[in-house]
Amino acid sequence: MKRVLPAIGLFFAAPLIAEYLLGSLPITMLGTLVVLGPMYGGGAILIREAVRRAGLGWPSIVVLALAYGVLEEGLVTQSLFNPNFLGLNQHLLQPEYIPALGIGAWWTVFVLTLHAVWSIPVSIAIVEGLSARSAAQPWLRRPGLALVAILFALGCISIARFTIREDAAHFVASRAHLASTAAIIVALIVLAFRLPQSSGVHGQRSAPRYSIVGLTALIAGSAFLIIPNQWGWWTVCLYLVLDVSVILMIRIWSRAEGWGPRHRLALSGGAAVAYAWHAFVETPAVGGPNRAGNAVFAAGLLITLAAAALKTPVEVE
Fold first, then answer.
1. Counted domains in the chain
2. Which domain does 268 fall in, by range?
3. Which residue(s) pair with 104 in the sheet?
4. pTM summary value
5. What is the pLDDT of residue 21?
6. Is residue 168 assigned to a domain?
7. What is the pLDDT of residue 280?
8. pLDDT value of residue 199
């Protein structure tokens, strides 16, 4: 049962971080966890369990998280291709629209980064911090995995049907878009399981302090969230430069002497805090602002991070 509890925690943590901590959904719509949990939480659990069972590392989690983002935004909600997603008049595809691909460069890079960083990896890292003793081990057996896979499929189908039904134009992407999206998902999954594993050998350089890692993640995450899309292609370029810079920086840090679980918790915690403060200036996609609700989620995050810090060992893996 002790192994199952972290999986249950991740089942709820993923949608709470992805939608509510960010401020996309207000606390008054907490009931939508019934459908968001199976998709976000189910996806996070399946990714985490697959990587841990295969003995792979965090790069594989990030690539699978990117595949999840393409699945959600390209096949389930189809927001990558819908010019007026859910009739919200947000004009997501207009900034730097690419006619040949039928996508908006800004929205594609922006939303896929959210999933590849916050929705899955950050959620997994925080929950693993709370269950440090089993962080590197699978949590579920085959029956549990089968149940999660079924819930994930049902969650995706439910949200896809809801999205099409509620969309003003009942938008459905073209066959070419759907087929190319499916091909990209398969390619990313294959890549995730072919990435070379870390040798476990650390260099002579010492890992930075936890505070520096957390503050860097907070600054980088905040910068990503506040860059205005009105800057056009400059925004897209800044997103990509920021993404690549953070990846390279983490790669260097993770190979340094002394890098360990608390560094990863600081990294994920800093990114999550960026979500938490940004929620107070975010306009919810559905419903009106609820600053009291934002404060509740922010406080819950800080309490969770404090509890995880107490449980996470200092030792290097």
1. 1
2. 4-311
3. 97
4. 0.94
5. 97
6. yes
7. 95
8. 60
Residue ranges in the chain assigned as alpha helix (H): 4-15, 33-36, 42-54, 58-70, 105-114, 123-130, 142-166, 175-192, 210-226, 233-254, 261-278, 291-311
For residue 258, is it left (φ>0), alpha (ψ between -120 and 50) or beta? left
pLDDT of residue 74: 97
Lookup result for tokens 């009942």 = 170
Task: Report the 10 Å Cβ neighbour count for 88.
Answer: 13
Q: Is residue 71 part of a domain?
A: yes
Whole-angstrom Cα distance, residue 265 to residue 247?
16
Integer Cα distance of 193 and 59 in angstroms: 10
Q: Which pLDDT value is given to residue 135?
A: 81
Please report whether residue 316 resides in a domain. no
Residue 301 lies in a domain: yes
Phi, then psi, of 257 in degrees rounded to 5: -65, 130
Question: For tokens 């072919």, what's the residue?
Answer: 194
Token pair recorded at residue 77? 């909600």
Q: Looking up tokens 């993923």, which residue turns up?
A: 14
CB atoms within 10 A of CB 230: 9
Cα(93)–Cα(98) distance, integer angstroms: 9
Question: What are the residue ranges in the chain where pLDDT is below 70?
Answer: 1-2, 168, 198-203, 314-317
Q: Name the 3-class secondary structure at 97.
A: strand
Mean pLDDT of the chain: 92
**CA dist., res. 31 & res. 26, Å (int):** 10
Task: Find, among 304, 282, 280, the residue nearest to 291 by Cα.
Answer: 280
Tell me the pLDDT tens digit for each residue of 261-297.
Answer: 999 999 999 999 999 999 999 888 777 788 999 999 9
